[in-house]
Amino acid sequence: MTYSHLGQNLNMITFLSVIGQSVIANLTKTGRGTLFLKQTLSCTFSVLCHPRLIIKQLFSVGVLTVLIITISGLFVGMVLGLQGYYILSDFGAEETLGVMIAASLVRELGPVVSALLFAGRAGSSLTAEIGLMKATEQLAGMEMMAVDPIQRIICPRFLAGCLSMPLLAAIFSMVGVLGGQLVGVTLLGVDEGAFWSQMQSNIDFYDDILNGVIKSLVFGFVITWISLFEGYDAIPTAEGVSRATTRTVVYSSFAILGMDFILTALMFGDI
Amino acid sequence: MEENNTQHPSLVTIRNLSFSRGQRIIFDNTSLDIQHGKITAIMGPSGSGKTTLLKLIGGQLSPSHGTISVDGLNINQLSRSELYTLRKKMGMLFQSGALLTDLNVFDNVAYPIREHTALPETIIRTLVLMKLQAVGLRGARHLSPNELSGGMARRVALARAIALDPMMVMYDEPFTGQDPISMGVLIKLIKTLNDSVGLTSIIVSHDVQETAAIADYIYIMSSGKIIGQGTPQELKHSKSDWVQQFMNGQPDGPVKFHYSSDNYFDDL
Q1: B260 CB contacts (<8 Å, ≥6 apart)?
Q2: What is the pLDDT of residues A49-77, one digit of tens each?
Q3: Cα B90 to Cα B240: distance, rounded to the nearest angstrom
Q4: Measured distance CA(B12)–CA(B219) in Å, rounded
């Protein structure tokens, strides 16, 4: 065997070894994440017995996210109103503008855009908070005080995230519809009665609204899980927490968009 | 050299402890005893595994080999609930203080009491103020942790560590960052707590003179081994070069100042 062949074989072995290590590391992390979720879920009942813990987190995770959700929802609804009007008016169907705006919002844009905003605003904040608590030994300190940090710190935030997300998506959709009405009815002159009545008769509670709520529940579960686990699993240094926060936003965004496709296919498609 | 300190009943018994982080060996077949009701100091150069030892005793880390018994219970064979029950009897003062940053000084000290007892708020208030008075920070009870200096944060953490009147307190560098007045008060406080309440204290510290002044027994560690042990007087007169170098803070000796590396000039 020549030296060049030997070198190629070594490069191939190194390449395979790097891939193998990466696969093992990712599988190990997935396993840690699953165990973390199991521990978190096992504390749910005891945390529900202390509602004050959840209420406090509902404020920081949910209430503080309302402003960004409301403003974004308003602008998304206004853009939908504009675009929808220009397209529908070509076909003389501008009276169905309300249906188009509401269906787009409750089925897709409400859950998805509010989830992306939630991941950026609340998810990154959760990761940074937990990561810094780890870096400053607060979690270890609780352990040494015989207080389970999963029960006292993680689980209340997890439940707050899961509860907040559907409510935030509902606020997003509601404000979006109002934004669409503002542009479509008030500015562009679509008939107000047609706008609301078409919406009322064509939007189905189970097919549209409930499916949107289910989507936002799933997104809330996944985003909060990723955010809390990344913080809990972060390397306890400034750089480690910074990287974990970035991973939260990236992984959450991928998860939201990927799961949206799967959920849409299951709910509305024939796949 | 690892003759154990067994004249009194031991609260903590460590036998043949081995522990590594990656390729780096922190403990290599180490055995030691912490006597009941005594102040035992663990001393040694930076990176010799003193804080790791406290984490092993507290069950936050698991040894790769050997046993650690606290109050007759093998720490690594306990269930989570048994470990938590034992930890209620152990206080730990972290190097960083580890105060909960969303709570003020008062609530930090009250935290373990509120978590583990059903005492009325008036009694909790009295208990917390007594603990804060002992560390000289009763007047700082409304401050938040980010308003405290490092030394003050460590004193609050000490008040929290003794909040549940534990049987044993582990102090990780309690004297770091303390001004001379606070240092004197803290030394006296640790000694008084130990003698009057019957606590068992484990102090991890670099401050040789201060620690030797109150310790009943000292272990000196380096490179995963116990290189010296005895009462402060015994160590003061020890013939071991290792012990003399550490007790007198000499730069040259068997314990190297530099982390192991290649030749300096070759490296440049």
Answers
A1: none
A2: 889 999 999 999 999 999 999 999 999 99
A3: 34
A4: 14
> By percentage, how much of chain A surpasses pLDDT 90?
87
Q: Which among B98, B7, B24, B103 has a CA at the least distance from the CA of B55?
A: B98
> What are A261's two structure tokens?
């496709």
Longest dimension (CA), chain A: 84
Residues of B in contact with A141 (CB under 8 A): 92, 94, 98-100, 157
CB of B202 less than 8 A from some CB of A = no
Per the CB < 8 A criterion, the answer to whether B174 and B190 are in contact is: yes
Q: Interhelix angle for A192-202 vs A155-181, to 10°?
A: 140
- Within 229-268 of A, beta carbons closer than 8 Å to B belong to none
Task: Decide if B54 touches A, using CB distance below 8 A.
Answer: no
Identify the sign of the CA torsion A261, A82, A118, A212: negative
Residue A162 and residue A218: Cα distance in Å, rounded? 8
Q: What span, in angstroms and rounded, lies between the C-alpha atoms of B171 and B50?
A: 11
Task: Decide: helix, strand or coil at residue B143.
Answer: coil
> From residue A59, how far is each of A102, A122, A163, A170, A225 by CA, in Å?
28, 11, 11, 17, 18
Write out the DSSP string of B86-127: HHTTEEEE-TT----TTS-HHHHHHHHHHHH----HHHHHHH
In this complex, which of B87, B101, B115 lies closest to A138 when CB atoms are compared?
Answer: B101
Distances (CA, A) of B88 to B59, B85, B104: 13, 5, 22
Handedness of CA A259, A260, A266, A269 (dihedral sign): negative
Instruction: Copy the structure tokens of residue B244.
Output: 């003399």
Are the Cβ atoms of B85 and A146 closer than 8 angstroms? yes
Question: Which stretches of A49-167 are assigned E, i.e. beta strand?
Answer: none
**B11/B166 Cα distance (integer angstroms):** 13
Contact criterion met (CB below 8 Å) for B31 and B15: yes
Say which residues have a Cβ less than 8 Å from residue B26's Cβ, sequence separation at least 6: B19, B20, B49, B52, B224
Burial class (CB in 10 A: 0-12, 13-18, 19+), B263: exposed
In contact, B154 and B177? CB cutoff 8 Å: yes
Segment B36-59, tens digit of pLDDT = 989 999 988 877 888 899 999 999
ipTM of the predicted assembly exceeds 0.90: no
DSSP 3-state of B20: strand
Supply the pTM of this predicted model.
0.87
Residue labelled with tokens 């940090």: A149
Residue type, A83: Q
The pair of structure tokens assigned to A234 is 């972060």
